[in-house]
Amino acid sequence: MTQTPEPARSPADLAGAEHLTPFERSVVAVLLATEPGDVVSYGEVAAEAGYPGAARAVGGVLGRVDGLPWWRVVTATGRLIPHDPDRQAALLRAEGVPVARGRVVLD
DNA sequence: TATCTGACGATAG
DNA sequence: CCTATCGCCAGAT
């Protein structure tokens, strides 16, 4: 196989990862890999993406890249994002995730 | 190349 | 339990 004319279409392409950095693409892949009802923290996404400790940088990706399930990302303590907690709570509940007083109910 | 910003995380009070 | 501060990382200017 001399060169692949059409590289495998990764889920990351759904967010237009054409002009994204490796870090952003990795984060996008992790988020798109999540499914409805699943909740992850910024630190978890960073670690899964291969950049442990870059939790803060993950937040930047959610703000720059659109088309991502940002509502499935919460803080390490289960706290909803300070940007749109009410919005996120509604989206999470729509997926079956119990939310109480601005925090996801961890089991 | 240097500096500032920010959808964070952990710890101290 | 909540607020304040420091530390860390990648992106933007």
Give a structural overview.
The chain has 107 residues and is mainly α. 37% of the residues lie in helices and 7% in strands. The strands form two sheets. A two-stranded parallel sheet has the order 1-2. Strands 3-4 form a two-stranded antiparallel sheet. Strand 3 and strand 4 (103-104) form a beta hairpin. Helix 1 (22-33) packs across helix 2 (42-49). The N and C termini lie far apart (48 Å). The model is unreliable at 2-10 (pLDDT under 50). The protein binds a DNA duplex (13 and 13 nucleotides) through residues 21, 23-24, 41-43, 46, 51, 53-64, 70, 73, 75-77, 81-84, 88.
Quick description:
The chain is mainly alpha-helical.
Alpha-beta classification: mainly alpha
Rg on CA atoms, Å: 15 Å
Kindly, what is the distance between the CA atoms of the first and last residues, rounded to a whole number of angstroms?
Answer: 48 Å
Order of helices and strands: HEHHEHEE
Basic shape: globular
The spatial strand order of the largest sheet comes to: 1-2
| Share of helix, binned | 25-40%
Strand content: 5-15%
Number of beta strands: 4
Which residues sit in consecutive blocks of at least 5 with pLDDT less than 50?
2-10
Number of helices in the DSSP assignment? 4
Assembly type of the chains comes to single chain
